[in-house]
Design a protein that fits this description.
Elements (H helix, E strand, L loop, with lengths): L4 H12 L4 E7 L11 E9 L2 E9 L4 E6 L3 H11 L5 E6 L2 E7 L5 E7 L8 E2 L13 H6 L3 H17 L11 E6 L5 H12 L4 E7 L2 H14 L5 E5 L13 E5 L5 H12 L3 E5 L5 H8 L7 H5 L1 H22 L2 E7 L10 E7 L6 H14 L4 H6 L1
Parallel strand pairs: 2-8, 9-10, 9-12, 10-11, 12-13
Antiparallel strand pairs: 1-2, 1-5, 2-3, 3-4, 5-6, 6-7, 13-15, 14-15
Helix pairs in contact: 4-5, 8-10, 10-11
The structure holds S-adenosylmethionine.
């Protein structure tokens, strides 16, 4: 039930000035208004001079950090931020999480949940690291995952940030997201948190073939207080029942041709944005092994290791070409350093609706014919 904005912001003010504050983020914008900064993040920090409230604001060019003393200085800084027309406040304290979203009518949609973890010790000022999502975020304590997975997910979100429009207010509302082959749902929850912090009204569905993952992930969503926004379905990527055609499709390391299923489903849904980081590649590798390389490329497939590497490159090149033929503009990028995972390629696609040229069609046909391969994605798109 929406409630008056003033009442909701008064509650936020009390929480921001409460010593039990863990972290708060203000982002997004209200209809017809533009805040002077894109985002503000507040957290308690322990400095030599005593406790401070750290406020990091970002105007789109660079972050600006200041540390204000508790009492009247903090109250004045908080009041100034509350006066900004942010679309969204997310506040965590030792005992509760409160989210306030300003509706199109200017009311407040308030969501409250119990705190999910014990509060972290106040951060040492000089140890702050530049992450898109704070690794100390209680979200990660609940969702779990290794440091490597967090780094991967953070890097994936950076690629997402570079794909979406600069102005969060131009995102669809609600922004519908599907994470295909979601596994333990690190990315699913992290994407929800990141996009919500941007001020978007986000709905996410995670799909995995394993029902035990659905049960576990749904329980985590309850624990995080976002079960009405983040839901899970058990089923294959191709056939799982998803309540809506999403705007944004994510797939991080969906095994082998599960990535092709994800791309095909995204095309069938006509998704606006698709980010897929492929995993292992066996489909084209097997076809190359069974076939004969066109001259003079025999050397590329004679040795197993070279054949596998070439198969990886050919697979993702053909995926990219097929998406282009379906009206997507595609970038293939490394989203994270290869030291963190060898599976560090990302296909980043945006639907433009551009009709393919005859040249592009001919190039795809010639490439597959010369190598005698039919990519899994081509079969799925028929
Ligand atoms: C390598 S894990 C990646 C999980 C998650 N995206 C991540 O990065 O942590 C691949 C996941 O995809 C799921 N999966 C594989 N093939 C699938 C399919 N055809 N349909 C649905 N899920 C699939 C597996 O059950 C597994 O949880």
């Amino acid at each position: 039930m929406p409630q008056p904005l003033d009442t909701a912001l008064a509650e936020v003010r009390d929480l921001l000035l409460d010593p039990a504050l863990t972290r708060a983020v203000a982002a997004g914008r209200r209809r017809g208004h533009i805040p002077s900064v894109n985002r503000a993040e507040l957290r308690p920090v322990a400095l030599k001079g005593g406790p401070r409230l750290q406020i990091v604001t970002d105007d789109g060019a660079r972050p600006y950090t200041r540390n204000v003393a508790p009492g009247s200085e903090a109250a004045a800084a908080v009041d100034a931020l509350l006066a900004e027309p942010f679309g969204n406040w997310h506040v965590e304290t030792a005992s509760a999480t409160v989210q306030v979203r300003v509706t199109k009518k200017g009311d407040a949609q308030v969501h409250r949940a119990a705190a999910t973890t014990a509060p972290a010790a106040p951060q040492q000022h000089d140890r702050t690291k530049q992450w898109l999502l704070d690794p100390g975020d209680p979200l990660f304590a609940v969702v779990g995952g290794t440091a490597a997975k967090r780094r991967q997910v953070d890097a994936f979100l950076r690629a997402l940030a570079a794909t979406l429009p600069d102005d969060p207010a131009s995102l669809p509302s609600p922004l519908r997201v599907v994470d295909l082959g979601c596994g333990n749902a690190y990315l699913t929850f992290a994407a929800y948190r990141y996009l919500t912090d941007l001020g978007a009204d986000v709905q996410v569905v995670g799909v995995d073939v394993r029902d035990d993952q659905r049960v576990r992930n749904s329980a985590v969503a309850e624990q995080l207080g976002c079960a009405d926004r983040v839901t899970f379905v058990a089923g294959t990527i191709s056939d799982a029942e998803v309540a809506y055609p999403p705007d944004l499709v994510l797939a991080l390391h969906a095994c082998d041709t599960a990535t092709d299923q994800a791309l095909a489903r995204a095309v069938h849904w006509n998704a606006r944005w698709v980010l897929a980081a492929p995993c292992c590649h066996h489909d084209i590798a097997a076809q190359l092994k069974a076939g004969t390389a066109p001259p003079p490329y025999g050397e590329l497939t004679r040795h197993a290791i070279l054949r596998e590497r070439y198969a990886d490159v050919l697979t993702d090149s053909l995926r990219s070409a097929l998406l282009r033929l379906r009206g997507y503009r595609v970038d293939v990028v490394e989203f994270v350093d290869s030291a963190h995972t060898p599976r560090n390629l990302l296909l980043r696609a945006r639907h433009t609706g551009a009709a393919p040229t005859d040249e592009q069609r001919a190039e795809y046909a010639a490439l597959t014919a010369q190598w005698g391969v039919t990519p899994a994605l081509a079969k799925l798109l028929h």
